[in-house]
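User: Show me a protein chain along with its predicted structure.
Assistant: Here is one chain, sequence first, then structure tokens.
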Amino acid sequence: MVGVDGVPAELPAENGMIGVPDDMQRLWTPHRLVYIEDTHQPDEHDCPFCHAPDYDDERALIVHRGESAYVLLNLYPYNTGHLLVCPYRHVADYDEATPAETAEIAALTQAAMRVLRASMGCHGFNLGMNQGAIAGAGIAAHLHQHVVPRWRADANFFPIIAKTKSLPQLLGDVRAQLAAAWPEP
């Protein structure tokens, strides 16, 4: 009898247990192991989120600057318009942020959603913070909130199968579009 992934269901596992087939299909992506194995976390001296505000907005892909936090495009976006909301201060975890920082991160996240809806016509969002490298944060040392716009039928298997992400607009063009659409304070 053949089980999941072509492995015989009766084949004992290393721990002596019999493999039990389930209804999960597995898609192995060993090329992503580099993200798991990279344990370096930047400090304020080599942190891209600490240094981005030192550059002009176009170069740093900054869409909006607030008092204690700012909004920039993700350099490796899941979707066109994928924004990050970061405090200026180098702090790793949400519970380390000050009340002013958390309030502004929340307000900028709401503004980002409104701007993305109005200027890009997205149908929904994925919002989130990956807290710690173990939770998937690429840069766990500097707090950042993801704002990922979503459209009906925007997901496909290109990123997994072909290591390709289809993004219909250049980052600089998206930054200019969103910065122009950002409401004045």
